[in-house]
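Progress note, sequence design subtask.
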């Protein structure tokens, strides 16, 4: 992800139009909704009924996704998610190839044992560059052991490619709504929607969230 910018889209129909024009459709029921932005991703962090939702499109090998995780995410969760103001969803956008897909599959396999977010964090905490080979069977098993997974169940899930199509579907969905870099964030509250791209500081998110909370 080489570009940093901050984009505000006033209403959700802007993204809906992009999605509607770039995917096969038969009727208006296929137009994009907030539920569609959230579905098929991670378990929801925070109150499902929170006024504001953040959906991150990310790649476990992405340099700037790692920087967001290291520098911004913890404060964002503490200030907004833990207080019930915001909920957070992660959707896969594996730009860096098969290893990124594999890492995303592993996170969902961990989710089968109710450890999705622990494994997600373990991947980013052990990030070692883009396309450097750090995502491999040994490392994925090590992360699984660290977060307390049943390794036999985890390995069976991975070897069966149980979640590969889910990961690829997330990437395709992102492409269809105009996601082209990671991390990208869709922040919405009702019909208000904003897109933020890059490893932005907390202040960028605060600006949007506070505006939505007060509207």
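Output:
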């Amino acid at each position: 992800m080489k570009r940093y910018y901050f984009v505000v889209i006033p209403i959700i129909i802007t993204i809906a139009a992009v999605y509607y024009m770039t995917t096969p459709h038969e009727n208006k029921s296929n137009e994009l909704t907030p539920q569609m932005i959230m579905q098929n991703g991670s378990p929801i962090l925070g109150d499902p009924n929170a006024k504001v939702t953040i959906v991150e499109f990310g790649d476990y090998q992405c340099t700037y996704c790692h920087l967001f995780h290291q520098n911004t995410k913890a404060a964002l969760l503490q200030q907004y998610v833990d207080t019930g103001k915001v909920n957070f969803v992660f959707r896969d956008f594996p730009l860096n190839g098969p290893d990124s897909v594999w890492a995303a599959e592993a996170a969902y396999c961990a989710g089968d044992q109710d450890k999705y977010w622990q494994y997600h964090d373990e991947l980013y905490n052990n990030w070692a560059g883009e396309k450097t080979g750090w995502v491999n069977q040994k490392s994925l098993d090590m992360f699984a052991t660290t977060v307390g997974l049943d390794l036999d169940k985890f390995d069976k899930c991975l070897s069966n490619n149980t979640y590969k199509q889910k990961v690829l579907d997330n990437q395709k969905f992102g492409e269809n709504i105009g996601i082209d870099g990671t991390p990208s964030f869709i922040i919405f509250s009702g019909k208000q929607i904003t897109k933020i791209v890059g490893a932005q500081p907390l202040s960028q998110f605060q600006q949007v969230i506070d505006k939505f909370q007060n509207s």
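The first helix runs from residue 13 to 22. Work on this subtask will continue into the next period as scheduled.
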